[in-house]
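Structure (tokenized):
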């Protein structure tokens, strides 16, 4: 698994948060309207607002499922690593989406220790990071 694959979960999580915000924004705008009776247009060409809202929620749920699948792939990959400290670093960085400074604090490491440890491990295991 390469670094791009490890980072995919981060971007999916960002996308999910964005979709969630849009769904909430949409709900606020229509909360006082009876959606079952209100259509965007009287013609069959347009769907009701409720149907469009449900499409957005379905998209949100599909992205959550995709993110969960990526999370499990990354977790399986991390489990396969022998070094416990590296496993912790990878989990904090790529699953919990922590910054290096925060990881140093969580692991009681000195400044930039975690980042240096990760890049040293990455260099020693470069074959794992070659895109396939």
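Design, position by position:
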């Amino acid at each position: 698994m390469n670094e791009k694959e490890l980072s995919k979960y981060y971007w999916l999580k960002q996308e999910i948060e964005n979709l969630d915000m849009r769904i909430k924004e949409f709900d606020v705008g229509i909360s006082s309207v009876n959606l079952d009776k209100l259509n965007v247009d009287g013609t069959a060409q347009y769907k009701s607002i409720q149907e469009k809202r449900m499409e957005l929620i379905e998209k949100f749920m599909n992205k959550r499922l995709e993110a969960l699948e990526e999370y499990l792939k990354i977790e399986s990959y991390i489990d396969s690593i022998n070094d416990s400290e590296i496993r912790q670093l990878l989990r904090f960085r790529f699953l919990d989406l922590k910054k290096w400074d925060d990881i140093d604090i969580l692991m009681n490491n000195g400044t930039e220790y975690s980042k240096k440890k990760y890049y040293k491990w990455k260099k020693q295991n470069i074959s794992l990071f070659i895109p396939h």
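Reviewer-requested clarification: The chain has a mean pLDDT of 80. DSSP finds five helices and no strands in the chain.
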